[in-house]
Structure formats: structure tokens, C-alpha cells
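Re-run with default settings, no changes from the original entry. Doing this only to confirm the output is reproducible before filing.
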Amino acid sequence: MFGSAEKKPQGRIDSLIGAGTSIEGGVRFSGGLRIDGEVKGAVEAVEGADTVLVLSEHARVEGAVRVRHLVTNGTVVGPVFVADSLEMQSKARIVGDVEYSVIEMHQGAVIEGRLVHQPEKAVELKLAASN
């Protein structure tokens, strides 16, 4: 795995876009989302929430993906922005640029685009003003 620290996503899936389902338009979610069908539009997680997107080997997303954790065995055509961890399984394919913090690629996974590493954001601590 490339990156400075191993981060694993939560295991809970709250929503499902099933096989044979096609959505045209953007999808915004919190928690966990699994896609087995097709989305033509952006897929983005609520900012600041601990979210995970799981794409099965039958899934196809045509649009930008912006999530905290992504586990994919499907296809994404568009830019991918992953705040924490990206796991690409053996049948995964991304056609577009990928921004990531930590990445794991299984043999057979393909990225047709640029890989841009985003270092972890430093936390700034400030001392409280004394009274």
C-alpha cells in the first residue's frame, strides 16, 4: 500500500443501487453506498462524514467521484478524489485522474490517468487564551 498510514473504511452499507438500475444525475450520500448498477453523473459523499463507496465488478460510474473511502472492482469514467483510502480490486478500472491519500491496487487493476498523491492534512493546534 502506498501512503503514510493505513486507513480502513467502515464496513457498514446504508444504501444500494442494484444491478440493472441506471441513474442519470448526481448522487450524494452519507454512510456507506454500494453500487452494482450504473450512475451517469457525479457520486459524492457528504463532506466531513465518515463515508465509504463500494463499486462491484458490474458497477459503472460516468462522472466525478468524491468520497472519503473507495473500494472498487468496477469502472469509473471521470476524475476520482479520495480523501483517505482507495482500494482497487483486480477488475477495477478508472479512466480519469485520481487524487488519493492512501492507495492499494490489486494485480489487474487499471488507471488511465494521472495519480496525484495528497498528503494527509496536518492538524493545527492552538492554545486557548488564558483568562
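DSSP finds no helices and 16 strands in the chain. The CA atoms of residues 14 and 32 lie 5 Å apart.
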